[in-house]
Amino acid sequence: xxxxxxxxxxxxxxxxxxxxxxxxxxxxxxxxxxxxxxxxxxxxxxxxxxxxxxxxxxxxxxxxxxxxxxxxxxxxxxxxxxxxxxxxxxxxxxxxxxxxxxxxxxxxxxxxxxxxxxxxxxxxxxxxxxxxxxxxxxxxxxxxxxxxxxxxxxxxxxxxxxxxxxxxxxxxxxxxxxxxxxxxxxxxxxxxxxxxxxxxxxxxxxxxxxxxxxxxxxxxxxxxxxxxxxxxxxxxxxxxxxxxxxxxxxxxxxxxxxxxxxxxxxxxxxxxxxxxxxxxxxxxxxxxxxxxxxxxxxxxxxxxxxxxxxxxxxxxxxxxxx
Length: 322
Ligand code: NDP
Fold this sequence. Notes:
The protein contains 10 helices and 16 strands. The protein has helices at 41-48, 112-132, 149-160, 172-180, 194-201, 219-224, 248-252, 263-266, 270-285, 302-310, and strands at residues 2-6, 15-19, 29-39, 57-58, 62-70, 82-85, 95-99, 104-105, 140-143, 164-169, 185-188, 207-212, 226-234, 257-259, 295-298, 318-321. The mean pLDDT is 97. α2 packs across α3 (149-160). Bound molecules: NADPH dihydro-nicotinamide-adenine-dinucleotide phosphate. The site of NADPH dihydro-nicotinamide-adenine-dinucleotide phosphate has 30 residues, from α1, α2, α3 and α10.
């Protein structure tokens, strides 16, 4: 079978389209015939070595497809089932293996592209808005990179919970998309100082929560945009990591909270995984959560997908089709 492998860490050119053996499932595992692969920022960190994995490896964590075979001890899934996974292993391939307890069945009404697009970024938007800082209608939230994969879904979920939502984006085209997702106010942060805009829009109060995936370029101003006792939810680092900070800064800026969450810790139990996945997949199925899937590449062109994502050229989800 074909698979995209990393033999040494580095740039997108290190993604190699290899011929490898079809994997067979061990105890508790399921083999999936992959129909659509979700590309995520974490894949670029695995590729570059920022989050190191043992070399060589097949890259990718998210996919949707059909169960090909099951290993000993698996009773919850059978060959032919339509499934998706957000924390799989080696999903940039024609077949991949996943522990059965991390697999989710997708509704018949949902196509594989939607399944692969919804899982990781959808469940991320879900835990950020429902659990890390549970939003209510009296809250105002600021969502950075509002036209991104997580961003467009997070805006929709914040609005679903009744909050007032500001979004930042880099271009006019992205501003249109963020507005279309429901953002009440959109700030072009490449041109405008977003803290001044937040001050203006909140009469100097600040926002209750900033969902910040950009990190290095936004972190300080995100802290400065918070209301007293506000939450900075730093969940990514698309512009690079934040330097170490002195906790006293949280005190002087208004008894602020800072957290650095990750999806795995909010889907650690089967119950929590099923809760978030079923909410997201049901909302996509009933049309109340809209996926944007304009960026699709063939599996052989995974390097181009990474270049586009890292080059800020994409909006919504990036998919690979084997
Ligand atoms: P996006 O689709 O949001 O792509 C990244 C976006 O970040 C760009 O489109 C761009 O939007 C913005 N950006 C700002 N500065 C830069 C820069 N210097 N280089 C590149 N992009 C920049 O990606 P995802 O939705 O896949 O992921 C967003 C972030 O969330 C990532 O950092 C990812 O690691 C993290 N994440 C964290 C999770 C968690 O559980 N902690 C789970 C899922 C994702 P613009 O042009 O509008 O500025």
